[in-house]
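Suppose a classmate hands you a notebook page containing two proteins, each written out with its sequence and a corresponding row of structure tokens. How would you begin to make sense of it? This section walks through that situation. The first entry is reproduced here exactly as it would appear on such a page.
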Amino acid sequence: MIECTFVRRHPAALLALMGLLALPLAAQTKPAPKPQPSPAPAPAAAMSEDDKALYAVGLSIWKSLEVFDLTPAELALIQRGLAEAAAGKPAADVTIETYGPKIQALVQGRQKARADKEKARGAEFAAKAAQLPGAVKAESGLVYVELQASTGEFAKTTDRVKVHYRGTLVDGTEFDSSHKRGQPAEFPLGGVIKCWTEGVQKMKVGGKARLVCPSDIAYGDNGRPPSIPGGATLDFEVELLEAAAPQAAPAAPPAPHPAATPVPTPKQ
């Protein structure tokens, strides 16, 4: 059985990946057959529950394929391969045994290219944020902008903090919000991404700040799928509600005294 990490982790993508594997090697010299027009899909309201479930299969496959950052032409090749495989006529000269092991290398290459693109966008975004009034750019790349001053105590790395926050990508897409959940988040400040550990320490209880976090001090090249792509710069608005040393765990009760071990009586 072919060992392929991507396929094992994304079983819903297996059918779509068959399209990639079924692409003939001679496709660059042979003109692709002219696609036949497909019937218009039924409106969502007219679909049965089974229709909607099948439509959801397509959504799931696309989510699994997002890692490839496909161009329209590449997507068309996958659709062609999927159709040929479904018809029982996949290309004979491109086999899973030969090309299956190459999928992971393709995934890794596409991930890196996508992360590099995100990093470039993020660097431009962070540079603009660093020009805002009062903005301070740290050596780590963090851009800190105070939004509301406070006279409270500074947070410390060893503190457990309570915060309200909103996180967005550089295009403004919100990926997380404690406000929407209806309750603040609590966590040890030393146990989160480096950007937060560094940035929240600059805040006083009762204050608000904006933290612009390059991927190197956020979630790195891998990101946090599906909401945070690899290489993404993150933009947080944080309100520090509380910061205090964690309470010591209660002392364990003394262990009961072990029962006396009978002394064996020597044989007469």
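The notebook's second entry, a different protein, reads as follows.
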Amino acid sequence: MLTASQHDLLVTMADDKAFFKALGLRIAALRKEAGLSQQAVADELGIAQQTLAHYEVGTARMPVSIVPVFAKLYGVDANELLGLQNGAGKRGPTPLLQKQIERLNQLPKTQQKVVMQMLDGVLSQGGR
């Protein structure tokens, strides 16, 4: 028969497992939404692709220090990434256009210029 402390430990372990699985699902969904491969994200974070894969399926616990890095990479609030309620004053998830602009800002200047020229061309045709 389990003692109360052993029972509490098992409950905590089950909660942790569910938490890391849910966190991994959010990270994988954000990566796919951003159109990035696991290898590209792993390279950006300086980790192995297999490590990222383990984070995404929840079989490995990511260090807390990497949470802000994921949040910045995907253009979301760390609380949102962790599955916490939006804080007072937060209006909701970042719109897709804002996320795309943030991704554009991460490109090298030469690639930014090409994308901006393409956008200018499309927008100038839309006004006709």
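A careful reader of the second entry would note: Residues 102 and 115 are 13 Å apart (CA to CA).
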